[in-house]
Write a structure and sequence with these properties.
Blueprint: H1 4-10, E1 28-34, E2 37-44, H2 52-64, E3 71-78, E4 91-99, H3 106-119, E5 124-128, H4 136-139, E6 148-149, E7 155-156, E8 158-160, E9 163-167, H5 182-194, E10 201-207, H6 214-222, E11 227-232, H7 236-251, E12 256-261, E13 266-267, E14 274-275, E15 291-294, H8 299-307, H9 311-314, H10 319-340
Parallel strand pairs: 2-3, 4-10, 4-11, 5-9, 5-10, 11-12, 12-15
Antiparallel strand pairs: 1-2, 6-7, 8-9, 13-14
This protein binds adenosine-5'-triphosphate (ATP).
The site of adenosine-5'-triphosphate (ATP) has 21 residues, from helix 3 and helix 8.
């Protein structure tokens, strides 16, 4: 039985992003007392919660104010909330990572965000839908792997670095170019989504080709996408194309979850001096979308990708990795806020 006085105290603690109290959000799994020690278990709406430390401090403060409480133990669990209808059976969120221009680091962001979410404890899939230039397999250190079939004759995603992924690169002989037209691309995207044994996933991250084309439309027509993340570099020429990509998603009724400014700045390793090579902060001009993060230019991002392990796992403390981790958590936070709109009151 939960302790009434503890619950009353916890009703005064709001989730800082969801702006509702933890009890009415159904986040308190346990609130008990053993002698003077309060034992509280909070179920976060994502294991990649960006504000876990704040919630813990707020819970402690509120519970310590309850009469008779001398100490408090806070445990965290998590359960990712999903929209009222899942996009695919067993999959809670499909998130598209798009860009206007090629080469801005979209695949790097997709691979690192997926790896960071998985490291935080989420069940993550990564679909390389950049069929013309699939690079996810390379970045995951698995370009030589071949996709096999399950007993139900579904594609079995490859497992690496704590997540599952599928890429055209693992279906075709290495180095071959893909010359497909719209209908074939549509059926490939469809199969990657529906004829693959993804299992239960909190987040399926989809790395799209750059620009505004058939693959993007096919994805939007095949599943309900929770939202899109737009990756851009800060300079004007990239921003013009990024706003076209935003416009396309809006026309396809896909919400924009936020923008990532990649190659935002460079910190010289020898002097520590910061250079805004492409004009840091340019992404703000895209029109008020949340900036999920600014990622510096960092040699390790490229070196780690070429060595087959995302930088957030190889060099988790580097400035670029910390920025990428915070993009992943901000994204997870945005999805929780969005899912709340369909949450019943408790
Ligand atoms: N922040 C960064 N610092 C250093 N190198 C980076 C950074 N982000 C990406 N890169 C490197 O830039 C190159 C292009 O990145 P990536 O392949 O992720 O771009 P992309 O936008 O997906 O490209 P395309 O659209 O052509 O597939 C890669 O070599 C990658 O390692």
């Amino acid at each position: 039985m939960p302790d009434a006085a503890l619950l009353a105290a916890l009703r005064t603690v709001n989730d800082p992003e969801l702006h509702r109290d933890l009890v009415s959000l159904g986040m308190i799994e346990r609130a008990e007392r053993v002698g003077g020690v309060a034992d509280v278990k909070v179920n976060l709406t994502t294991p990649a919660c960006p504000l876990k430390a704040t919630i813990e401090a707020d819970v402690r403060r509120a519970v310590m104010n309850v009469e008779g409480v001398e100490d408090v133990r806070v445990e965290f669990g998590s359960q990712v909330r999903m929209p009222s209808t899942p996009p695919l059976p067993g999959v809670k969120h499909v998130v598209a990572i798009g860009s206007g221009k090629g080469g801005v680091g979209k695949s790097s962001v997709a691979a690192n965000v997926a790896a960071a979410l998985a490291r935080d404890g989420a069940a993550v899939g990564l679909l390389d839908a950049d069929v013309y230039g699939p690079s996810v397999a390379h970045m995951m250190g698995a370009s030589a792997e071949r996709v096999t079939a399950t007993e139900e004759r579904k594609m079995r995603p490859i497992e690496r670095h704590g997540l599952k992924f599928l890429s055209m690169a693992n279906l075709m002989p290495a180095g071959q170019a893909l010359v497909w037209r719209g209908p074939m691309l549509h059926s490939a995207v469809n199969q990657f989504l529906k004829d693959a044994a993804w299992g239960n996933l909190d987040y399926l991250i989809v790395d799209l080709p750059p620009g505004t084309g058939d693959v993007q439309l096919s994805l939007a027509q095949t599943v309900t996408i929770s939202g899109a993340v737009i990756v851009t570099t800060p300079q004007e020429v990239a921003l013009i194309d990024a706003s076209r990509a935003i416009d396309m998603f809006k026309k396809a009724s896909v919400p924009i979850l936020g923008v990532v400014e990649n190659m935002s700045y460079f910190v010289a390793p020898d002097t520590g001096r910061v250079y805004d090579i492409f004009g840091r902060g340019g992404a703000v001009r895209l029109g008020g979308y949340p900036i999920l993060g600014e990622i510096p230019l960092d040699m390790e991002v490229r070196q780690d990708a070429d060595a087959g392990t995302p930088a957030v796992l190889s060099h988790p403390e580097s400035p670029a990795s910390l920025a990428l981790t915070s993009v992943a958590r901000n994204l997870a936070g945005r999805l929780s806020v969005q899912a709340l709109e369909t949450l019943p009151m408790v």
